[in-house]
Amino acid sequence: MRRTRTAHLCAALALTATAVFGMTACTASPTAAPAVSGSAGASAPATSGDDAGDGGQSTADACALVQQTISAATDDFQSASAEDPGAVADSMTAAAEQLTSISAQVTNDQVAAVVPELKDMFTQASGIMRSVADGDMSKVGDLTDLGTQFQETGQRFADICADNG
């Protein structure tokens, strides 16, 4: 019984890793994007490439802010133990909370439109991993669909950043 549970945990973690790392591969930081401070009191990033209706924020600046948050989430995920889906759930929850926290700082319309989808995916991943941590292995299959969703949304985000960065 213990061996089966461990095998399911490993499968769940592998699928989650594929989803998250697949997304970060799609969202490589724009090459011209400036470094952005993570503090809430930081001044707004430079506004190169300003477009009407975007609150004065360039696409590159908005992409850099979101990418920084996603990268921090994957760093947390990498440090989570393969035997501890609860830690993975916690890192996914933290990522969703960080995306919520920075969403007000993302004033570029195109990038801001994708942030809620990204947040929702991290929230869903957290819920699935929390269920797995609580012993509900039936949720492992949900990670496959979520992985596809991560890749599609991540690609949309990458396309926005590449087209306008």
TrEMBL record:
Keywords: Signal. Residues 34-50 have a biased composition (Low complexity). Residues 34-58 are annotated as: Disordered. It comes from the Bacteria. Residues 1-28 form the signal peptide. This is Lipoprotein.
